[in-house]
Amino acid sequence: MSAPLTGIRVLDLSRGPVGGVATMILADFGADVTKLEPPGGDPFVTLAAAPMWLRGKRRRELDLKSDAGVTDLHALVSDADVVVTSYRPGVAAHLGADADTLRALNPALVYCAITGFGPRGPYSGYKGYEGVVAALSGRMMSFEGQPERPGPAYAAVQVAGHTVAQAAVHGMIAALLLRRRTGQGDVVETSLLQGMIPYDLAGLYTQQLMRNFPDHFPADANLALNRQPTLQYQPVRTRDGGWIQLGNLLEHLFHAFLGAADLSEIYADPRFTNAPQLTLEDREALREIILTRMQERTLAEWMETFIADGNVAAEPFATPEAGLSHPQLVHNGDVVTAIHPTLGPVTQLGPLARLHATPGVAAPFVPGAAPAAGSERSAASGEPAPRYPLEGVTVLELATIIAAPLGCVLLADLGARVIKVETLEGDGYRTMGQGAGAIKTNTGKESICINLRTAAGQEIVRRLAARADILVHNYRSGTPERLGIGFDDLHQLNPRLVYVNAVGYGVDGPYARRPSTHPVAGAATGGALWQAGAGTPPDGPLTLDEVREAGRRLTRANEVNPDPNSASVYATAALLGLYARETQGIGQRVDSNMFIANAYANSDDFLSYAGKPPRPPVDPEIYGLSALYRLYETAEGWVFLACVTDREWDALLQATGDERLATDPAFATRAQRQAHDAMLAAVLISVFRARTAAAWEAELAAVDVACVQAARSTPGVFWDQDAHVRANGFVVEASHPRWGTLRRHGPVVSLRGLPPRMGGASVAGDSTDAILRELGYDAAEVAALHTAGVVRQATAEES
């Protein structure tokens, strides 16, 4: 068997790491990729991670501002399967590289357009730097309170770029699957702004629910900016000054932690009988006990204890460089070393998923000079065109909380039918907080509640699996086998099933049976420390109050992004398996995990080689990375400035008219500006205080410098109210069984030829009886299953 995308020929016209990672993934799984660059090359190849995302690609310069270059492109397109671009709207047409022009030459072409803000609306012409998108969409306001100052804080981890790289792959695979049915290509569209959609888990719904049902949804007091973490997610300091992130969300894991920490005696104290569900006063008392105990042993001693216990979710806070040697990532093959022709050994990310029958490999740095012969393109099947890209695909979800369920939402949005199997009580995430986040993770699904501890319940799942195309679960290793629904069991029943292990660490290996939750993956792969900023956590002796405050800041830094980071990778893994099945006729086991997913989210630094530039630090007050890529307070409000190129610097000088910037030799060249960064920041602080944020955005947009308001709204308010969102259809109306019509986020990626499937939310067990009837159970059998406590149908009150 060959890699899934063998025979697919890709022309990569994109610039930088977003399209670069997307086409790297295609190359890792067999596609033949040629990167077409402007004269002088892609300006972003100087980035530290460029050697990795350039792997597996031939590079060729092509001047699309010349007739000869356009002619060459059009000749190449005639035999291509996929073209990937990252132009701002309108630029591709000017260069003769737009979708309409290229698809007229090759109607079977899949054209993927990655933009900053989408094809239309007031921000469509803005430059798509990640920081600009994060600021404008309110993401930086979600970090307010992380530093000890008012206002937004820089969002360090490049989550939009990560999600969009994955979303582009989702869209391209969906379009290639569609082409096998219709013979026609399509236009795949995504944007960095859409890449922010998975990270607003509850904000959009919370805004509407507070407005429509104020008695049921009062303002959430738990959103205080200086709030302490939950005890389950407490960062703790060890005797040798190390820091460990705890992640024991579920109560049985929290109790396991207390046992491993030799703190079980706390249950004898009546204050802590119901731990971790405690009053504020008792919670703080227990926090002090935990923080004190954890400083009695070294980091290595505690980790040895937790790993041996096997039921404690905990990982040290680490950098990406340390993450490269994580025992589980190494065991999985998620980290590989290859020889670069000029850099020597490069330790880097491996393929993002392990497909056991059709594996990918980290493509070599120097592929052959000649492209692969021929193209995968095959005759259309003659089937009628579907309504949605993945119409006809059934996904069986056995997963809880956020990461894997949100990954299945991404598949549902592309048109797959998703059947969610829940316990009789339902997914525990439905009752966490005010429940708004669970609306998002359950949109577009049908739910069946089953007691999988019963033989009859396991038989229902087997019947579902016999009809499914994809199964996604997030059980710890060994659990599916104990339930009789492991890969070997179900593969015999349905050899075409794509069986996705969307797990914490891996299916086998040293940590495979350990629990994992989002903060431990965020801590171990480097994102949390980067977001924390220089000086956090502090070194040296600390008082308990200082430990508590450092833990608070680390918690705010290690926010919810690791779960959505994982969701997009799980969806990629499932689609790669589905494409392999459609082209090679086999189902297979597909393994992916939270740690490789979050390593990909930190791919800008998740590699190592001699002379690699260090990851730029975030300053202690979390303004940004440099004087020309950071937040500034204005006369009214805040802006985020991204002034990266010499051309942008010249335009900034023209717009500000500031003589100090124009005449000081310390700022005359890019190298001088970098050498005098603190001095430049001090000047710009005074410059930006002269006008309002709105005025700066308007004035600098007029000269094509990216500078946007950063404190207008939180993400929920942005998605709820912004005119640009409405202009692009990034929010659409859908139904909720209990709360009526609510606007939900639109798709992260779409195909121009087919609409997304924007389903409404489900409640636990809303489709139980209907699904049982579909499986062939008659009325008496369904009633017997209810009586025996095997299944549960949602009541009218729940709906």
Question: What's the layout of helices and strands?
Answer:
Elements: E1 9-12, H1 17-28, E2 32-37, H2 50-53, E3 57-61, H3 67-77, E4 82-85, H4 91-94, H5 99-105, E5 110-115, H6 130-136, H7 159-182, E6 187-191, H8 192-195, H9 203-212, E7 235-237, E8 243-246, H10 251-260, H11 280-294, H12 299-309, E9 314-316, H13 320-323, H14 327-332, E10 335-340, E11 344-349, E12 354-355, E13 394-398, H15 403-413, E14 417-422, H16 436-441, E15 445-450, H17 455-467, E16 470-473, H18 479-482, H19 487-493, E17 498-503, H20 518-524, H21 527-532, H22 544-557, H23 562-584, E18 588-593, H24 594-601, E19 624-626, E20 629-633, E21 638-642, H25 646-656, H26 659-663, H27 670-675, H28 677-688, H29 693-701, E22 706-709, H30 715-721, H31 723-728, E23 731-736, E24 740-745, E25 749-751, H32 768-774, H33 779-787, E26 791-792
Parallel strand pairs: 1-2, 1-4, 2-3, 4-5, 5-6, 13-14, 13-16, 14-15, 16-17, 17-18
Antiparallel strand pairs: 6-25, 7-8, 8-9, 10-11, 12-18, 15-26, 19-20, 20-21, 21-22, 23-24
